[in-house]
Design a protein that fits this description.
By secondary structure, the chain is α/β, with parallel strands linked by helices. Helices cover about 40% and strands about 20% of the residues.
Length: about 300
C-alpha cells in the first residue's frame, strides 16, 4: 500500500546533519510515510552512513552533483505518497509535524500549506524580523519581495507540484522562491501557526552563503512570471517589485564601477518598466532607498 506522505530529503556533504534530520522524521508521532533521501554527489561518505544506519527504513538514491532543485525534483519523481513533504538536511522536524499537518490538509482539502518555524543560528534561538513574518492564504504580493515559504515547513499535493512544473534546476539559489511565486500566483498557501520545524542556520556550508546577491535570481524569477502572461493587479505588483530589485542591483554595480553589469540588470526589466504609469520615472517602486539589499 502506498504511504500517505513522501518525505524528500536532499543532501550534499552533510553526513552528520542529515542523520539528525532523518532521526527527526523517524521520531514522528505520525507513521504513514516513506523517506526518500537523494544524495546529491556527496564526497563525505553520506550514502554509506545512511545505508548502514537506516537500511530499508529509507529509500536512498545516489546521484551526480546537480544541485538542490534537481535533487528535490528527482525525489518527487520517485515519490509514492498522496502528499509531498520536503526536509532540508540541515533542518529538523518536531515530533508532531506530520500528524498535525496531514490532519489539517485532509480536513480542509488544501493543496499546499506550511507551518511556523523555530530559528536557530549558530546554536542560539533567534527571532525572525518583521519582514520575514509568514502570511497565510493569498501570499503572492508579499512573496515578491523575499522568500516567505520554507521548504522544510511545506506539505503539498503531487498534482500541484506537477501542475506548476517543480523546481527550476537552472537556478543555483532561490529555486524555492521561484516555485512559491509560481504557486502563489494562482493558489493560496496556508499557514499552520504552530512552530513544527527547527530551521538551523549559520553553519559554513549553508546554501545561502554560497552565492551573493540573491535578488539577481529573484529578479529572473519575476521576469519569467511576467513573460508568462501574468495579468491584472498581480502583474502591476510584479513589475514594481522587478523595478525595485533591478534599481538596487544596478546601483550596487555602479558603485563598484561595473557599468556593464548595471546595464545588464536594467535590461532585465526594460520591456516591463514602461507598463508603470509614468514609464518608471519617479515611480516610488524605483527608489533605491525603498528597495532590498543584496545581502537580504
Amino acid at each position: 500500500m502506498a504511504p500517505l506522505v513522501s518525505v524528500i530529503i536532499p543532501s550534499h556533504d552533510r553526513r552528520r546533519m542529515v542523520v539528525e534530520a532523518v532521526d527527526s522524521v523517524l521520531a514522528q508521532s505520525f507513521r504513514d510515510f516513506e523517506i526518500i533521501i537523494v544524495d546529491d554527489g556527496s564526497e563525505d561518505g553520506t550514502a554509506g552512513k545512511i545505508a548502514v544506519r537506516y537500511g530499508a527504513a529509507v529509500r536512498l538514491f545516489t546521484e551526480p552533483r546537480r544541485g538542490v532543485a534537481a535533487a528535490r525534483n528527482f525525489g518527487v519523481r520517485r515519490a509514492r505518497g498522496g502528499y509531498l513533504a520536503f526536509l532540508d538536511s540541515d533542518d529538523l522536524w518536531r515530533p508532531r509535524k506530520l500528524e498535525i499537518q496531514t490532519a489539517i490538509m485532509r480536513e480542509h482539502g488544501w493543496q499546499i500549506c506550511q507551518t511556523e518555524e523555530i530559528w536557530i543560528r549558530n546554536g542560539l534561538r533567534v527571532n525572525p524580523k518583521e519582514k520575514h513574518r509568514k502570511p497565510s492564504g493569498d501570499i503572492f504580493r508579499a512573496s515578491l519581495d523575499l522568500c516567505l515559504v520554507s521548504p522544510s515547513a511545506v506539505m503539498m499535493t503531487p498534482d500541484l507540484f506537477d501542475q506548476v512544473g517543480g523546481f527550476d534546476e537552472s537556478l543555483p539559489v532561490c529555486e524555492d522562491y521561484d516555485l512559491w511565486l509560481r504557486i502563489a500566483r494562482d493558489h493560496p498557501v496556508y499557514l499552520i501557526p504552530e512552530p513544527l520545524v527547527v530551521k538551523r542556520g549559520g553553519h559554513a556550508d549553508q546554501l545561502s552563503r554560497s552565492t551573493w546577491g540573491f535578488d539577481r535570481f529573484r529578479a529572473l524569477s519575476i521576469k519569467k512570471l511576467l513573460e508568462r502572461d501574468l495579468a491584472g493587479e498581480k502583474r502591476g505588483w510584479a513589475v514594481e517589485a522587478l523595478a525595485r530589485k533591478v534599481t538596487v542591483l544596478a546601483n550596487g554595480a555602479r558603485k563598484r564601477n561595473h557599468e556593464g553589469e548595471a546595464l545588464a540588470y536594467e535590461a532585465l526589466a526594460a520591456n516591463f518598466i514602461g507598463e508603470l504609469s509614468d514609464g518608471g520615472r519617479g515611480h516610488p517602486g524605483l527608489l533605491p532607498e525603498q528597495g532590498f539589499s543584496q545581502a537580504d
